[in-house]
Design a protein that fits this description.
Strands 5-6-4-7 form a four-stranded antiparallel β-sheet. The chain has a three-stranded antiparallel β-sheet with strand order 1-3-2, with helices on both faces. The chain starts with 16 loop residues before the first helix and ends with a helix. Helix 2 crosses helix 5 (92-108) and helix 9 packs across helix 12 (257-296). Helix content is 55%, strand content 11%. By secondary structure, the protein is of the alpha+beta class. A hairpin with a 2-residue loop joins strand 5 and strand 6. The longest helix is centred in the last third of the chain and has 40 residues, at 257-296. The chain has two domains: 1-113 and 200-297, Winged helix-like DNA-binding domain superfamily/Winged helix DNA-binding domain (Arc Repressor Mutant, subunit A, Orthogonal Bundle), CATH 1.10.10; 119-184, Alpha-Beta Plaits (2-Layer Sandwich), CATH 3.30.70. The chain contains twelve helices and seven strands. It has helices at residues 17-20, 26-41, 47-55, 61-73, 92-108, 131-143, 162-171, 191-198, 201-215, 223-237, 240-243, 257-296, and strands at 45-46, 77-82, 85-90, 119-123, 147-150, 153-156, 179-183.
Length: 297
């Protein structure tokens, strides 16, 4: 069996140089492995299995072992030692985190609900001198699907998220300085123009186009190669819930590429998932058999 030290790098998508410069860390890829391969089985897995699948993605053995150790420190996994060998099991907290992430990832591509034309508007400003607070405000409001219309004014076509946005402002200590409205446009204003102003839809479309071009033409049947592609597929896709505010179709450009990307993700995931699961099962079975033979000897 090959490990991360000597395994060839298979299944790496052909992404652009700009995307390659933002290559995923070993720890981020490990999180994808845990969510895709470990969570569904509920069984501990030997270090050698992680070395194999992450090694196929070009992650060095040392980096894999460090990622496992740090994940244990953070309470995602726990080691279970048998002699000189170590298996890794998800903790209860790790399972909950991965289940929440899976719900967000796999529910993300579902068609948006019909829009009733109402907007959520939050007027809020953070002190200019407090860079950290302003960064947290931008990050957390963006996560709630809010876009910046003008400095201090955040909008969303999802008024049902008002309680979540209010909770963010309260958590940051800004509720006393904020005002939140829910309402419709008056006689002036174009909803699509508001969307183009509040969100960088052109940049988002480029990201989706890269995803489609990177995975669209790939056809693999070898289980190990399919596993590498499956992990990269999920790794790339799970970025989009942080980037895409899930705007209603009425606010998006015609023939929105994000719709095509979501369909492609669902198709490739459905095709490669059984092959990846079979490969992971073979790895864990092989590791267990090897362990038993060593114990008998």
């Amino acid at each position: 069996m090959t490990t991360g030290k000597d395994a060839p790098d298979v299944g790496a998508p052909r992404l652009t140089r700009r995307r390659a410069l933002g290559a995923a860390s070993a720890r981020s890829l490990l999180l994808t492995v845990l969510g895709e391969l470990v969570l569904s089985t509920g069984e501990p897995a030997w270090t050698s299995a992680f070395l194999d699948v992450l090694g196929a993605l070009g992650v060095e053995e040392k980096a894999v072992r460090q990622a496992l150790a740090r994940s244990a420190d953070d309470g995602w996994v726990e080691p279970r030692r048998r002699g000189r060998r170590t298996a890794w099991a998800l903790t209860d907290g790790g399972e909950r985190m991965l289940e929440d992430g899976a719900a967000r990832i796999y529910g993300f591509g579902a068609p948006a609900a019909p829009w009733d034309g109402r907007w959520l508007l939050a007027l809020v400003g953070a002190p200019q001198a407090d860079r950290r607070l302003r960064h947290l405000l931008r990050t957390r409001l963006a996560w709630e699907g809010m876009g910046s219309l003008v400095p201090g004014a955040w909008v969303s076509p999802h008024p049902e998220r008002e309680a979540d946005v209010t909770a963010v402002l309260a958590d940051l200590g800004l509720e006393a300085e904020a005002t939140v409205f829910v309402g419709r446009l008056g006689t002036l204003g174009d909803p699509a123009r508001i969307a183009r102003t509040a969100w960088d839809l052109e940049a988002l479309a480029c990201r989706y186009t890269e995803f489609v071009e990177g995975f669209g033409s790939v056809e693999v049947t070898d289980p190990r190669e399919a596993t590498a592609w499956q992990l990269r597929l999920v790794q790339e896709w799970r970025r989009f819930p942080f980037l895409d505010p899930r705007l209603p179709p009425a606010l998006l450009p015609p023939h929105w590429v994000g719709t095509r990307a979501a369909a492609l993700f669902a198709e490739k995931h459905e095709t490669w998932k059984p092959l990846a699961d079979a490969h992971w099962t073979a790895l864990t079975r092989e590791s267990s058999t090897t362990s038993s033979m060593r114990n008998r000897s």
